[in-house]
């Protein structure tokens, strides 16, 4: 079919020079695919190099501590990916003797590996004829064939997968999958694509009908919750501070943070002062509370907007488990807290 021939020719002329495209090693391809979930290539690339340098094989990753993995992942977000990555590495290393499953069906059994990631590894590493269907693929196919099916529905994913399977050359599925994703990322962009230079501008149904910016259709709305975090930064007479590990399920699981006072709304000095003295740190003698006003930030996650304020609380005593500034920076923090630490140069 002309579609896959035109697409692959475009890809060979325009593809980006990406490290995971130079290998069929399932470990490196798996690593890159997990990192690029919800993440732009430019952001994920440095992390890919850091991980492959620090953990050159799946066994190196399996043998590392979770804390080390999270520290290296710091700033990439969606930290459940890192935790699943680590657990899966341990499973492959310990239970599968370090050998990756070599089929789409078996890859799906790995923790943190969904249909898209399994298809990517299966086709790129083993040349299995299984289509990848991500946001880029939805967009390209919806526009080219003028498909108005709602991509938020599970049935639509099956529809697009069947279409991609039909279009895919069975003798070279890997290059087709790479090509259609790359085309969606570089040419058939989400907003204002330059259709005048598109290789498909004479056959794209959406372009002929003036519907390029209307497709694909996605009706599902994400409900955003607002939360209000007040981080209480203790400073004792030695300049040391305290941190704690987030052990509950939810955002930032197993990362570190300062003692947290979560409220129902943005609160002022009086509220923080009262709660700190009466509830959070009643066993200490507080000699001063200060608001880091310039560090107040709204940190936006996919389903939550975190309104974060930082408060310095000086105490008269010496903290039993106090941490100094040098040691503080060795722990894995959510990036918003790590940036605060770097910016403020906390003298703890």
UniProtKB/TrEMBL annotation:
Its EC number is 3.2.2.31. Binds 1 [4Fe-4S] cluster. Residues 35-186 form the HhH-GPD domain. It catalyses: Hydrolyzes free adenine bases from 7,8-dihydro-8-oxoguanine:adenine mismatched double-stranded DNA, leaving an apurinic site. Gene3D superfamilies: Helix-hairpin-Helix base-excision DNA repair enzymes (C-terminal) (1.10.1670.10), Hypothetical protein, domain 2 (1.10.340.30), Nucleoside Triphosphate Pyrophosphohydrolase (3.90.79.10). Keywords: 4Fe-4S, DNA damage, DNA repair, Glycosidase, Hydrolase, Iron, Iron-sulfur, Metal-binding. It is an enzyme of class 3 (hydrolase). It holds the Pfam family NUDIX_4. One of its GO terms (molecular function) is 8-oxo-7,8-dihydroguanine DNA N-glycosylase activity. Its cofactor is [4Fe-4S] cluster. One of its GO terms (biological process) is base-excision repair. It comes from the Bacteria. PANTHER family: ADENINE DNA GLYCOSYLASE (PTHR42944:SF1). Adenine glycosylase active on G-A mispairs. MutY also corrects error-prone DNA synthesis past GO lesions which are due to the oxidatively damaged form of guanine: 7,8-dihydro-8-oxoguanine (8-oxo-dGTP). Belongs to the Nth/MutY family. This is Adenine DNA glycosylase. It comes from Flavobacterium potami. The gene is mutY.
